[in-house]
Amino acid sequence: MAPDFVARSTAGTLRLSDYRGRWLLFFSHPGDFTPVCTSEFVAIARAADRFAALGCELLAHSVDSLFSHLGWIRAIHDDLGVAIPFPVVEDSSLEIAHAFGMVDPASNNAASVRAAFFIDPDGVIRALTIYPLSVGRSVAELLRTIAALQRTHDGAAMTPADWMPGHDILLPPALLAKEALAAKGTTGWFYQLAKDRPTKAGAP
User: Fold this and answer.
1) Widest pairwise Cα distance in the chain
2) Which residue range(s) make up the domain with 32?
């Protein structure tokens, strides 16, 4: 379960549990006014409609102050022509960063890691990624991961390597001896592709 919190943000005070009932991408960045983080914010903002089409909310976080967030958003808007449509949470105390394990205890740097938490409508963290400070995230992969988690949420299917919406899915493997013996071939009981059903618009 994702740790709940109440914090100030660029959209006012919010509580993480306010997002219950919806998919949420909660992502942190190491610092405002930094090159890689700026590139990520611009890319995610430009893809905001694609996240919305998947029914996924966006919530950003860093350990910088609210005023730093506001200044950075203003600079991105004025100099790069991109409006940031999602809230950015303030975490100067590092309380949220510690709750989510986003601070490296062996590092002298108080900045949070470049993490992304994929949270389902029940508030459960279904997946997470952590990138180094020098490497930006792929928006296409964030979208693909959300789509894959949604597709497999009911437990009736799995997604193979490099899966994209509309591609073949994997069926769950046999769990009983009679099912394994009845399957075709030597791999049919544990590796069976099937045609997928139509997916939502906006998928990557």
Assistant:
1) 65
2) 6-152
